[in-house]
Amino acid sequence: MKSKQTGFTLIELMIVVAIIGILSAIALPAYQEYLIRGKILEGLKQADSAKTSITSQAATIADIYVAATDWNSQENHNGTVPNSKYVDLITVDDDTGVITVDFNHTTIGVSSGEDQLTLTPSIHTTSGVVLLNAALTAGTTGAFEWACASGSSSTSTNRGIPSVVPDHPLNPKYVPAECR
């Protein structure tokens, strides 16, 4: 009389380990991208106060300059964001009002030279969407629009909103859909 086998054979255990390895090889990169996206969102959230500054103060070209200068030279600010380990710098261009968010590439986990997003202000007029400085120069009024751009600006382009692509753009796979 043969004894009945109990438990698992070695090959069955090896198959289970192989399946777990394959699943983790797929899940780990996706999770790393998810973490990077969360860090990028934190940087965009920190740029909200700069957006508010431009939106509330820019009634003329001179106002853009004043708002940008105020933002870039705030006491204990100096264009930097000391309370974030993910963002090195948030600056406002004094001619256009374009906000550039410079991320710390080491702490967010991206390559050096691929660490910026831009937020471009525009005015939605009856004849279309115009960059803020051009609208103010022409004396045009309307609702504010913000375009976010990284390595791509296809979302804002498809919506007819002009945007400025940063000098060192983030990979579009890491940014929110609005910034692609």
UniProtKB/TrEMBL annotation:
Its main location: membrane. Pfam families: N_methyl, Pilin. It is found in: Membrane. The keyword Nucleotide-binding does not apply. PROSITE patterns: PROKAR_NTER_METHYL. GO terms for biological process: cell adhesion. Coiled coil: none annotated. The chain crosses the membrane at residues 7-31. SUPFAM superfamilies: Pili subunits. InterPro entries: N_methyl_site, Pilin, Pilin-like. Keywords: Fimbrium, Membrane, Methylation, Transmembrane, Transmembrane helix. It is a single-pass membrane protein. GO terms for cellular component: membrane; pilus. Signal peptide: none annotated. Belongs to the N-Me-Phe pilin family. NCBIfam families: IV_pilin_GFxxxE (TIGR02532). This is Type IV pilin structural subunit. It comes from Thiothrix nivea (strain ATCC 35100 / DSM 5205 / JP2).
